[in-house]
């Protein structure tokens, strides 16, 4: 400041010129599909290079910026109106309320759907879902839960790009019954695992998991099933349609006998079949089963099997989705024998003719061992892998089952283990085989450490003749994806990934895992997780197939190992 007499004084930083915030005047178009991909022009003032745009909480991809216009591509999002926000590098920002509406096309089929017939939540059981997004953009998901009375409750969520999300008792809406079935609708393909645990005194001592079913069908086949030796066998049926379903269940006993029963499943509901109580001949038997809709109403079918030990309810248990149809060739990535483990390959033959089978056992660092078997007509065959050859008595093994006389079969694999080598089986897990290989797979659930000292293993089988270079990426609920150095899996061999050993960052966290062959080699991928309870090592264990993904050109993933 200067006076009339010429004297002056200066105050440093005495006046601040504030930059003007950006403005939004128009948004065009102002609506688009929930899958994203709409190119939107945002008109206004004082935009600048480096600005970011959010549609609700999700980032839009910026195409171009001038001082008066921005062009962006919308992300996938849940249905409804959202604010559009422009944030400049300086931190100045502007929001336009409800400026863009994500619309649900009622006539369009969802991009990705999965059904889970099993689920329970209460004082004994708890259920969680792990959702893995292997894409570079976020995925919008709707989960709909149906109780035994037909009541439905839905929730929506976003799975972050190259990340994982979890639904459990803490964020799932209240349901009308302890037992429920679930349908997932997503804007793109994702991996989904459902894990059920059961507990005593708040400590989970048993668990099983499954990856879901793509669509309801009018016929299903289940290879595994037993009520002998204290086993309790249940079939879980979900009817996601608006019409009651009449389902004929045909039990194919190992003795060659058949038993038929008919059950009704109400519209938009689920029901349970306790096989032990179905008929006197089913009270102590080994069996496969077929399910046929008599009125052509499609349903979803799963099987759960439990065993009591020492007076404890459901000490051991496993679960698998039913199989859509028999096939001539099946792949099983997981398998371990020796020590406390026993592995069984269960083969169901629903045909009127015998099935001649060639079974190839793939081992790490060794040539495949090939055996031949015969599955009798309309019966089931059990292969106790440990007993098939001395070299399989203590081995990590994957399996290929092939019919050599054009008679298709269904195949599952069950693993049982003991707390001590001399004790009874204390837990199990199971998976159906797969009929296709893929170069890319994602497994949705996995954890390491924590109160249960969890350990997660990813099992990779290479069904090709040449070695397969494989890239593994850890997807977390928070933070960037992390990739490990590429390694090789022998031709017609298998490889076991100890996730915590490969990724120290996985300690005491939940995660998903992306497995990719960098050369497009044919792989089959499964995941197994084990945890301790009440001083019993690996008291609870789960296994799930990975989900095959479309091939793509591999790109670098952020993070280091």
CATH class of the domain at 23-103: Mainly Beta
Category from helices, strands and their pairing? mainly beta
Question: In CATH, what is the homologous superfamily of the domain at 23-103?
Answer: Immunoglobulins
- Could you list the spans in which at least 5 consecutive residues all have pLDDT below 50? 553-561
Number of strands: 44
Q: What is the helix fraction of residues, given as a range?
A: under 10%
User: If classified by CATH, what would the architecture of the domain at 23-103 be?
Assistant: Sandwich
Content of β-strand: over 45%
Question: What topology emerges from the helices and strands here?
Answer:
Blueprint: E1 23-28, E2 31-33, E3 39-45, E4 52-55, E5 58-59, E6 61-65, E7 69-73, E8 80-87, E9 93-103, E10 112-116, E11 125-133, E12 139-147, E13 152-159, E14 163-167, E15 180-186, E16 191-200, E17 203-210, E18 219-222, E19 231-239, E20 245-253, E21 258-265, E22 269-274, E23 287-293, E24 300-309, E25 312-321, E26 329-332, E27 341-349, E28 355-363, E29 366-375, E30 379-384, E31 397-403, E32 410-418, E33 425-432, E34 440-443, E35 447-448, E36 455-462, E37 468-476, E38 482-483, E39 487-489, E40 493-498, H1 499-502, E41 509-517, E42 523-533, E43 536-545, E44 547-549
Parallel strand pairs: 2-9
Antiparallel strand pairs: 1-3, 3-7, 4-5, 4-8, 6-7, 8-9, 10-15, 11-14, 11-16, 12-13, 12-15, 16-17, 18-23, 19-22, 19-24, 20-21, 20-23, 24-25, 26-31, 27-30, 27-32, 28-29, 28-31, 32-33, 34-41, 34-44, 35-41, 36-40, 36-42, 37-38, 37-39, 37-41, 42-43
